[in-house]
Description:
mainly alpha, elongated, 0% strand, Four Helix Bundle (Hemerythrin (Met), subunit A), 83% helix
Amino acid sequence: MKLKSALAGALRALNLFGGGISYATPQETHLDQALKEAESAASEGQNDNATAAAEHARGALTHAELAENVKSDPHIAEAKVHLKQAIEHGDMGQATVAGEHAQQAVEHLKMAYKEEKTQ
């Protein structure tokens, strides 16, 4: 009976946290998410929203770190540097500078993505 309850709980947790099956590799998934978040951070910086730029940069950084854990890539490493700068400047209210760093991160993530697809 305890096993049945444990299985039911595990299934609820999977459903709660989007337990859908993905056929992408973990790096592709995190790289995709990092790119989306970095693009949003760059856009928010251009729209003079420093707080949102920093928040999206944080999301991008998290995904970039997870992607890098799967496979090291110099472009991801450089993107992380710019994302950290985007966060720092966004937290200081410097939306334009945060957006510029986020855009640099976008460019590096695109290079990492391109290299991943050609391998």
